[in-house]
Amino acid sequence: MSGDVASESLRIRIVGTGLIGASLGMALSRKGFQVSLDDPSPTAAALARDLGAGVLAADTLGDPDVVVVAAPPDVVADVVARELSRWPNAVVTDAASVKGSVLRALQEKDVDLSRYVGSHPMAGREKSGAVAAQVDLFEGRSWVVAPGPKAAAGAVELVRRVAAAAGSAVLVMTPAEHDAAVAAVSHVPQIAASLVASQLLELSSSAVALSGQGIRDVTRIAASDPSMWTQILVGNAPAVRGVLESMAEQLDAVLAALRRLESDSGHGTVGARAVLARTVADGNAGHARIPGKHGAAPTTYAAVVVVVPDEPGALGRLLRDVGNAGVNMEDLHIEHGVGQPFGLAELSVLPAAVAPLMTALSSLGWRVHE
Amino acid sequence: MSGDVASESLRIRIVGTGLIGASLGMALSRKGFQVSLDDPSPTAAALARDLGAGVLAADTLGDPDVVVVAAPPDVVADVVARELSRWPNAVVTDAASVKGSVLRALQEKDVDLSRYVGSHPMAGREKSGAVAAQVDLFEGRSWVVAPGPKAAAGAVELVRRVAAAAGSAVLVMTPAEHDAAVAAVSHVPQIAASLVASQLLELSSSAVALSGQGIRDVTRIAASDPSMWTQILVGNAPAVRGVLESMAEQLDAVLAALRRLESDSGHGTVGARAVLARTVADGNAGHARIPGKHGAAPTTYAAVVVVVPDEPGALGRLLRDVGNAGVNMEDLHIEHGVGQPFGLAELSVLPAAVAPLMTALSSLGWRVHE
Fold first, then answer.
1. ipTM value > 0.85
2. Can you give the pTM of this predicted structure?
3. Architecture of the B7-174 domain
């Protein structure tokens, strides 16, 4: 293994030049890695080469240090096994979105598992193929490295370096931890999106015409490829079933609540309303746990409270003054007491902006509180 | 009623100056309507006025021609009834997202239903309140006008004019048709998003860190307000239950398929795989029915097929030539035969671009087919 080789001179062989393989080739080539490309389709490999993802494997001299298998889920284990045998000194990783089933398939074969380290770059697009490749596809995304029990530490380190070089934030977890996580954050959302979209099949065109941004967002990933997703769901069936059962139970509770509301308009509906409110509130709380776009914790804001007299133009003047202070306001809430000649405006801003904003507004005559 | 009054001189009274009321006031004021604003919170009304949504109701002279009630769902019927009594010559409409329950509540009151025409502007944002108002909130969105059986034709026409003046595409349907449609395109997607987001509550932070764009999109609306959504779901319980039951049935089928995959790795899994594939494929088909952003039918593209020799740079050169021809390529598929010295590139373009693109590529020596 080549754990002591400088990243810049690592030789990477990418097998499968679809979206993931071609994007990775582009990213690693830019970083100075020597990338060679292989694909069952010569045309697909040639397109990736033309996009700057590397050279064709046939043109390459020298054995690879790391082989990245970016093949469809149902052939990944076979291709990994073949590459492990073909390159006896290389570390082999794959990019499949389920890790336990690939490892189990390899454990049934006669291969050197010390050189295999499964991984999963959490990046993708609705479009597929090298034509959709982007050099920054992995930038700021998570890339899970999920070594099995026999993987050598040096092999894990090499795969980490490749993932980091592509721009990803590397997370190391076991294959089982990975599969449970993606069941909840990826596979069950896919099923939910597909089921919501399916309900449109029976609607009239004028009813479908009422679709707004909400259902567009919920169902965007419903446009995904059925054959790829069948492979993914089959590969992760136990973990997906677990999360889906919990969702089905909650769905049944919502259905029971709706039925109670229909059959009873009296006191029995109080509990039913509570079920509905808790469903949406739990969704709020779950949604709030999703980190910001680049894997960072969600930003928290600080509040500045300003007394606003109830006179024409007062709030408009305040918003103008906030803008002139060069402060970016994230949110604004208005509070008021009935009959009071003023209201309270609560401005949410970045914590660092609190002091400068208070100084600026005070100097303009506003009554300001933290 | 004032069906013969020119739109520009219509007097509109907006009751409730949150996101919808304030945005509507801004849009109608810009069109030259005389808009007056009322809200239980004087501060909220003042903010809407400061944003250019109209004048405060207290400052207004003259009875309104149309009253738009943009109040929370659970008080809409009471406010509509009050406005119908207070302004005996005005047409009253509301903006609540469920129409059947508002109409039924009004039918139990002693009000003049010939002057009430329910409506529902299909516009919204995650943010609420006048501070989130936008003059173009309704631009290109659907606005359902859903008259009950007693509504006068002139009243319906007046509400249509207001909706059209705000920039919306007006759809007329019965309250029942409306409620069945929004159950599928809005209310069930909200429940699904909440349930998917809820599954994150039990996950470790490192597992949640794997969240990608997919779950972000699916759960964006899970951040919605529980109290508002409880009111909406209660108001549309029968229609929501119907769609949700069909979704629950399909979810059970997916669960059964996953269980079969776990317990049997033989022939019994063929049917299970078919269930999963059909679920995603039905989602594809349902998703494809959602019209484009502005309510138009989805654009269909035409294909131009180009023969691409398997030589370095050939595909890159083709993409460059397509770009130079000034044609916007929507999609690209590569086909290939094993061992063939060329591939086929299928370019998807707007139908009108087919002829110019074929001429341009032919003149550069490409072999082109339609």
1. no
2. 0.72
3. 3-Layer(aba) Sandwich (3.40)
